[in-house]
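Example S7 (structure tokens).
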């Protein structure tokens, strides 16, 4: 069983930056692909980014490419989401998620339904 706790959300002006963190406890962290998702009021949960077990592979949703960066530190059991050039449309609750993978090549996981473990979410609000 894996428990995930996000932090780092808040209120920021458009054009600003935030860094989200997600700390995992339980499980073997370096066997999990880690993802970030977000959900705005009245909208579906949206894929933001995913990172492979080693951190060597990453992928992003089209709306955040070039602005957000996902990274992980396995020794600290932590995954990060650096968010730059924030826009009002980035306003949402951001969730980290974990999926156990059997081999390192199984990392490109963008569907929320494939993730077994979720954090409680952290609110990001971008003002215009």
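Recovered sequence:
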């Amino acid at each position: 069983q894996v428990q995930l706790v996000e932090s780092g959300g808040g209120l920021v002006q458009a054009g600003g930056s935030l860094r989200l963190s997600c700390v995992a406890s339980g499980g073997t962290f370096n066997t999990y692909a880690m993802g970030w998702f977000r959900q705005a009021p009245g909208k579906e949960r949206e894929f933001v980014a995913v990172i492979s077990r080693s951190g060597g592979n990453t992928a992003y949703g089209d709306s955040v490419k070039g602005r957000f960066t996902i990274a992980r530190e396995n020794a600290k059991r932590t995954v990060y989401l650096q968010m730059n050039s924030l826009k009002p449309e980035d306003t949402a609750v951001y969730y980290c998620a974990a999926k156990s993978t059997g081999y390192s090549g199984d990392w490109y996981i963008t569907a929320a339904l494939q993730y077994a473990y979720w954090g409680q979410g952290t609110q990001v609000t971008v003002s215009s």
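Notes on this example. The mean pLDDT is 96.
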